[in-house]
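Input sequence (82 aa), recorded before submission:
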Amino acid sequence: MRSIYEVQVIDGVICITDLDGVKSVTNDIEDIIGLSLDAPIIYCDSNGIWDGVKVENGEFKGFRILAGQFRHEAVAAIKQMT
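Predicted structure, token format:
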């Protein structure tokens, strides 16, 4: 059972959008970031809220609360954190 999601890179930030699969992106994030690169990551959950993902050496370390309703705001916020 895996999540269904879309990935885009915008202004150097990996943007993951949850497409409401059986498993949410939030609950599948460790498998998703296993595919990740050295770039900041944000994701939009099934409620439409954008938050950040903490990754160190390719491993999931938690979430960064951005609570953004718009992707461009979340992109700007995560870039300020890195």
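Checked by second reader. The longest helix spans residues 71-81.
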